[in-house]
């Protein structure tokens, strides 16, 4: 659409909707979300990529190299820095020299006027989530607030995408120029008493602060005051007075001189034309830039930001004085999301190849760790808190122990298989785990130092004074390498399975096509057992999987709220990509005392809990997150599906045309009645190979590959492959999508080529195997295409 035909090129921050994420970019999207949650955000608007590309088309390029822009890419020798600098200089100069069409000028001015500010700041960014990180690559642009200066400022912000460093980065990452989606966030620039950055990590928050505007920190001229905060208690662990000799502030007029030279950062504007000035100070140097009260306000705000947007890893802030309020007001500025870097060295542990393992078991979650053994033989003795650096040793990893997994560095179990829920959660959390060690709870004593090798399935006794190895598990290293690599999307969509709300932030940079399976019952254990709010009651807290208590009227609002919060964050990260929410699958917990009885049809209690889940999904849909679909687990017959369908229709979700209802293809009888399910309203199926395997072969999923001596590989058995093929074939005939979300494709990558050939709609795997699965899909698709091409010869 041409700019003159509408105003879709501009979005006020308070008008941005969840569906606008790819249009406005990550920066503005997150600020808008925080604004809706009530956080103090300076007003502003976004100029979308539509205007950027239309502007490039109006430029009469003088250099032959640029004539075909923006349809073509730029070609240059990365080993010729002078050539690269010259190309960037020519591009930026023509951007500055080309006037914006008058009709555009009027509309831009109409957005600038309401800001009523003497100066503006422009934040260039890219609306390309799930690509390579660009933090620090694009610098902000500042200017006076009049129309002429603002239009120049916008073009200078556009120049940031064509600076030499940017052009080199696009080429290194394999990003074509025409595929970029440049956006610019425009906000007022105000005088600040203090400003800085908050960096958020799981083990600590670090606050950086300086006097005045933040430019002295961004440009490396000051060393900030540092405050280290302990996240659990919000206690100040450490504070250090910085060196803050340079203070930036807003000029009172364009003629005001600066006492200290300002670095030349903006293309096309001399430093004397900037709306800021710098002074050297000495009297404020011995003082912290934040008072204790202001520091406490910032700490509390940080906690609120984390609660409302856990994906954020840093944000900029400023303390501003307004005429309407005698107290300085804290405002949030730019925000940042996860960027993972590749470590240059692996886990620096004593070589395991030089000694014999004390115990040999089944490797169910990769990684290595040292720790102190803690033996638990019965769920009745589960502590509320494990000691630091604990290796948990248990008979089997049941639901009872799942909340403890986030407190330990490794797990050893006497029983359990690759597809047990405990193994799945351990792999997702990146915790080394070994199962199938006979009498482990007897042979290992509490307090003994052990080394767990989750790749080889080996456990060793260590010297008591052996230091804990520092480093990351193999899985973490693999994923970090994955983030550093540019991937071209495959034709077969790759999705991810998750079960923990603490894993949500890891999805931000993954080049996935959505969440193919959200195991709600495992996520519920996490959010209900360890909420950020106080427990509803001791009775519920003591038996977190006792869902029958949550359907009581006085507990329902808390249940809905705690489930909505992580799903809301997940929907924000995924944007328009699909999220398949699997309804609570309580078959394993149904064996425990206090839960719903096992029956051949849904009990009234189960249906009451299902109604609560529908309220959760409806609340998300009403909030604008309409990319969430429902999967029903373990449906045994059409009649059972119709019971759930009736309640779905009564909930109001069916009024949304985007809403879909799928079922898990895990009960073998579904093979013979899929057309009947489709007639009854099923809109898609997801093959759950973990449960399908146990039902097809009559085995317990927790015992599949439960020991290294088990030679039967059920997931690659011809009978299972035939069943999967039939599901895909019948789904295609019924014209509904068919996904696969079990562990079979990850355990046996050779199965992926069969899946692609048979016509699988998407493949969803656990977080720890995203890279290997992506590679396997790529190779499979190439082999299939090559074979087809050869047959044409």
TrEMBL record:
Domain Pyruvate phosphate dikinase AMP/ATP-binding per the UniProt entry, residue ranges: 24-265
EC number, as in UniProt: 2.7.9.2
Alphabetical keyword list: ATP-binding, Kinase, Magnesium, Metal-binding, Nucleotide-binding, Transferase
Domain PEP-utilising enzyme C-terminal: 492-780
Keyword Hydrolase: no
Stored InterPro entries: ATP_grasp_subdomain_1, PEP-util_enz_mobile_dom, PEP_synth, PEP_util_C, PEP_util_CS, Phosphohistidine_dom_sf, PPDK_AMP/ATP-bd, Pyrv/PenolPyrv_kinase-like_dom
A Pfam match: PEP-utilizers
Annotated pathway: Carbohydrate biosynthesis; gluconeogenesis
Entry's Gene Ontology molecular function annotations: ATP binding; metal ion binding; pyruvate, water dikinase activity
Required cofactor(s): Mg(2+)
Catalytic activity: pyruvate + ATP + H2O = phosphoenolpyruvate + AMP + phosphate + 2 H(+)
Ranges of residues in domain PEP-utilising enzyme mobile: 387-457
Function text: Catalyzes the phosphorylation of pyruvate to phosphoenolpyruvate.
PANTHER family assigned: PHOSPHOENOLPYRUVATE SYNTHASE (PTHR43030:SF1)
Family of the protein in this entry: Belongs to the PEP-utilizing enzyme family.
Name this protein carries in UniProt: Phosphoenolpyruvate synthase
Organism: Planktothrix pseudagardhii
């Amino acid at each position: 659409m041409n700019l003159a035909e509408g105003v879709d090129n501009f979005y006020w921050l308070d008008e941005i909707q969840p569906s606008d994420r790819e249009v406005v970019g990550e920066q503005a999207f997150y600020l808008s979300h925080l604004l809706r949650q009530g956080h103090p955000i300076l007003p502003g608007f976004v100029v979308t990529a539509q205007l950027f590309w239309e502007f490039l088309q109006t430029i009469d390029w003088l250099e032959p190299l640029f004539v075909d822009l923006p349809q073509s890419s730029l070609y240059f020798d990365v080993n010729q820095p002078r050539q690269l600098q010259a190309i960037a200089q020519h591009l930026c100069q023509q951007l500055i020299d080309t006037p914006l069409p008058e009709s555009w000028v009027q509309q831009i001015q109409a957005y600038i006027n309401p800001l009523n500010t003497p100066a503006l700041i422009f934040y260039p960014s890219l609306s390309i989530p799930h690509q390579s990180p660009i933090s620090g690559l694009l610098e902000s642009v500042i200017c006076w607030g009049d129309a002429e200066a603002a239009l120049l400022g916008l073009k200078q912000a556009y120049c940031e995408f064509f600076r030499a460093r940017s052009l080199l980065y696009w080429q290194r990452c394999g990003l074509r120029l025409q595929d970029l989606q440049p956006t610019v966030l425009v906000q007022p620039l105000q005088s600040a008493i203090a400003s800085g950055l908050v960096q958020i990590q799981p083990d600590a928050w670090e606050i950086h602060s300086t006097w005045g505007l933040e430019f002295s920190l961004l440009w490396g001229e000051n060393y900030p005051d540092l405050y280290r905060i302990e996240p659990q208690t919000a206690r100040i662990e450490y504070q250090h007075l910085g060196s803050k000799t340079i203070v930036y502030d807003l000029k009172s007029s364009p003629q005001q001189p600066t006492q200290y030279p300002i670095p030349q950062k903006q293309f096309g504007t001399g430093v004397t034309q900037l709306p800021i000035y710098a002074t050297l100070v000495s009297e404020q140097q011995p003082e912290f830039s934040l008072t204790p009260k202001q520091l406490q306000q910032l700490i509390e705000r940080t906690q609120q930001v984390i609660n409302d947007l856990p994906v954020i890893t840093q944000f900029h802030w400023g303390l501003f004085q307004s005429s309407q309020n005698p107290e300085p007001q804290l405002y949030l500025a730019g925000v940042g999301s996860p960027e993972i870097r590749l470590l240059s060295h692996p886990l620096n542990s004593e070589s395991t190849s030089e000694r014999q393992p004390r115990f040999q078991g089944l490797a169910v979650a990769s990684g290595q760790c040292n720790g102190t053994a803690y033996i638990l033989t019965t769920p009745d003795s589960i502590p509320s808190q494990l000691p630091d650096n604990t290796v948990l040793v248990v008979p089997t990893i049941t639901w009872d122990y799942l909340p403890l997994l986030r407190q330990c560095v490794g797990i050893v179990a006497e029983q359990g298989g690759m597809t047990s829920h405990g193994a799945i959660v351990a792999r997702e959390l990146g915790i080394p785990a070994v199962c199938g060690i006979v009498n482990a709870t007897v042979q290992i004593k509490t307090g003994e130092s052990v080394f767990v090798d989750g790749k080889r399935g080996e456990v060793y006794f260590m010297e008591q004074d052996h230091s804990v190895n520092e480093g990351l598990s193999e899985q973490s290293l693999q994923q970090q390498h994955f983030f550093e690599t540019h991937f071209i999307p495959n034709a077969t969509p790759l999705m991810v399975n998750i079960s923990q709300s603490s894993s949500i932030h890891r999805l931000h940079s993954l080049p996935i096509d959505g969440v193919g399976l959200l195991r709600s019952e495992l996520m519920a254990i996490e959010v209900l057992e360890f909420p950020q709010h106080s427990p509803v009651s001791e009775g519920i807290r003591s038996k977190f999987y006792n869902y029958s208590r949550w359907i009581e009227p006085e507990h329902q609002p808390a249940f809905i709220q705690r489930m909505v919060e992580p799903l809301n964050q997940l929907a924000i990260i995924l944007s328009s990509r699909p999220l398949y929410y699997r309804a609570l699958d309580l078959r394993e917990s149904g064996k425990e005392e206090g839960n719903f009885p096992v029956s051949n049809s849904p009990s009234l209690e189960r249906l009451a809990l299902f109604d609560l889940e529908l309220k959760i999904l409806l609340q998300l849909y009403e909030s604008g997150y309409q990319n969430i679909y429902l999967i029903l687990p373990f449906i045994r017959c059409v009649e059972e599906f119709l019971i759930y369908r009736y309640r779905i229709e009564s909930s109001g979700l069916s009024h949304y045309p985007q809403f879909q209802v799928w079922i898990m293809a895990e009960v073998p009888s579904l093979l013979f009645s899929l057309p009947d399910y489709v007639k009854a309203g099923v809109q898609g199926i997801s093959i759950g190979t973990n449960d399908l395997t146990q039902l097809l072969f009559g085995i317990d999923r927790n015992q599949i590959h439960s020991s290294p001596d088990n030679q039967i590989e059920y997931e690659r058995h011809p009978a299972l492959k035939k069943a999967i093929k039939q599901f895909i074939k019948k789904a295609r005939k019924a014209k509904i999508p068919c996904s696969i979300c079990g562990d079979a494709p990850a355990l046996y990558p050779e199965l992926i080529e069969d899946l692609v050939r048979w016509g699988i709609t998407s493949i969803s795997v656990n977080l720890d195997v995203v890279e290997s699965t992506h590679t396997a899909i790529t190779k499979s698709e190439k082999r299939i295409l090559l074979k087809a091409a050869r047959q044409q010869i």
